[in-house]
Give the backbone structure.
Amino acid sequence: MRVAYKYEGETVGNFKTSLTGIILAGLLLSACTSSGSGPGKVEDTLGVDPNQQAGQQQSGQQTAGMPEDEIQDPRMYCPNITLRAGTETHDVYPDGVKKEDEGAASKLRYRATITETVRDCASANGFTNIEVGVAGRFLSGPTGASGDFTMPIRVAVVRGDEVLYSQLHQVPAAIPPGRTNGTFSFVDKAISIPAPRQRNIVIYVGFDEGPYGTP
């Protein structure tokens, strides 16, 4: 079962862009649903190169093995993905500048925005294996420049107050010379939880400034 969500909107500090897929803070719109089977489903939906994706997994992270006898049933429960308000964008400023500082908007280096999430579920041996894909766009701000950077994206699976899975990923991105914008994508394949007996699981995705190594 594969389900994709896309988000739309537009805002970047005190300047405007024409990029589609940028979302306003707090806006959460479900736009399309798709399903399928076979390996690489999430990557296909997000347009991720599986070879490139392999290098984006956080160092030391164990990837959940997907058994050959896993079953993909379109009727099975696949938890929804939720973006908490305020976690769908990530702003980076020069060292020493905080978002709440006066005039900070004019010093913004770049803003990254999550525009699409995808999840795919399969059952095997009493467990539900989940792949979560995240895609988005980033824009240079008034003080932005080309170069490489990383974005902190957390994927968490919770049941009420119980955290079943939580991982903070360092997702690489780059602004090529002569460009002021770009896209990013990431797939977390390490989620494996006991098959839920009730439909009370939520997958949270969003930017989290860390620190890294925290649950």
Observations:
- Confidence is low (pLDDT under 50) at residues 5-39, 54-68.
- Residues 41-46 form the longest helix (6 residues).
- The CA atoms of residues 155 and 205 lie 5 Å apart.
- The helical segments are 41-46, 50-54.
